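Task 17 of the worksheet. Students: predict the tertiary structure of the chain below and write it out as structure tokens. Keep your answer in the requested format; marks are given for formatting as well as content.
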Amino acid sequence: MEPIILASGSLRRQEYFRLMGLPFRIIPPRINEEAEEAGDPRNFAETLAVRKVKNVLELLKGKNPAWVCGADTLISVDGAVFGKAATRDDAKRMIETLQGRSHQVITAVALYSGKANATDCRSVVSDVAFCPLSEKQIEWYLDTGEWQGVAGSYRIQGLASCFISGIRGSYSSIAGLPLHEFYVMLRENGYPYGA
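Model answer:
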């Protein structure tokens, strides 16, 4: 199998690539992921995933890699987009908003094929319900530092799982890469993966 350039610094996405047995190398993109004026959350996630792929292609300066994969995960609450918290206060505001209710987690995946010179992008929307949290519980969670560097200030595969009362959708998508959809994308775009 040809190596895939993973346009992401996400450790979870790297773990999923290893789980799938995919050969890959990492080139983190250099883009602004700010959610200001994001518009439709699903379209915004897809735009960011495609921008990551395009940025890596630009960083390679004319070298045409066989495959590049970019992904982006964001949180949507009543149409507002939560990206990565910049500060503890920002993370606190996010967790306070999420507690005691449901929100959507949107992960978009963009796959570039050098042979076709085309990018396929798809997204998955999942619902996550948080239990009600006290101020003390929120402060305890913030003290762990787990909120840093992740959309919505939580990781479903981390301590925040204690607060999640239910999910509807794709667990792997909530964690950062919708494995089923990515598998389908690989096969439909001619990547020789699976039977």
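Marker's comment: The chain has one domain: 4-188. Residues 41-59 form the longest helix (19 residues).
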